[in-house]
Amino acid sequence: FRERMKVITCQWRDLHAKEAQLKIHMEESGKTLKENDKMRMQALKKAIRERENKMQKESELLRAKGKLEALRNKHQKLCNRVQKYSIFNKYLEDVVKISQFEEIWEVISRYKTLVRMHKDLLQSQQRHKELSEQAKVLLDQYMEEKEAEILQYKNELVQLQLRFDQAQSDILSWETRWADIQNMTAKKTQELGTVKLAILNLFQ
Q1: pLDDT the model gives residue 65
Q2: What is the pTM of this model?
Q3: pLDDT, block means (10 residues), the chain with 204 residues
């Protein structure tokens, strides 16, 4: 029993030692795993950054290619325009030869001056047109006001004419009545004279 207990004790001690070693190994493995995870995360972040940088550079490259293509198109258009307008340069050179101008820029300057003067004249004409329209509107308003006043005066004249006609009619009526009164007065006077004469005869 003692021998067996010694063996069990030795096994138990070995088991504890192995357990301690296992704990140490687990801790070291955990640290290693943490370090590996940390390194893996750093590597992943680095890969993500590199991928983002690559995508950004590719996007910038695409934008640069687009700008380059646009500039090429613009350059081609400008070349075509220069080629198209080259005849005008030749025309301006011929104009300089047969005119009082000595340089092409003088012709262009003169043309710009004339265009500016033409624009100023158009603006002045437009202003005069607007002022004329405003004056016409004011004149129309004045004419309408005066026509309204004339119509009002005509209405008043009609009313006065009606009153004058009524007064004329009243005068005729009053003259008739006055004639009647005068006739009646003359008749009464004649009767009064007859009565007086009769009284005088009776008195005599």
Answers
A1: 92
A2: 0.33
A3: 84 87 85 84 89 91 92 90 75 72 76 89 92 92 92 92 86 84 90 88 82
Q: Alpha-carbon distance 143 to 2, whole Å?
A: 145
Q: Which helix (H) or strand (E) holds 202?
A: helix 104-203
Cα distance between residue 33 and residue 25, in whole Å? 12
CA of 85: how far to CAs of 82, 92, 94, 199, in Å? Answer: 5, 11, 15, 138
Does 6 fall in a domain?
A: yes
* Residue 5 falls inside a structural domain: yes
Domain count, the chain: 1
94 within some domain: yes
Which three-class secondary structure string do you get for 115-163?
HHHHHHHHHHHHHHHHHHHHHHHHHHHHHHHHHHHHHHHHHHHHHHHHH
Instruction: Establish if 90 belongs to a structural domain.
Output: yes
Domain of residue 17 covers 1-98
- What's the pLDDT at 203? 80
CA atoms within 13 A on the CB side of 119: 6
**103 Cβ partners below 8 Å, 6+ apart?**
96
Return the DSSP state at 1. -
Alpha-carbon gap, residue 31 to 37, rounded angstroms? 10
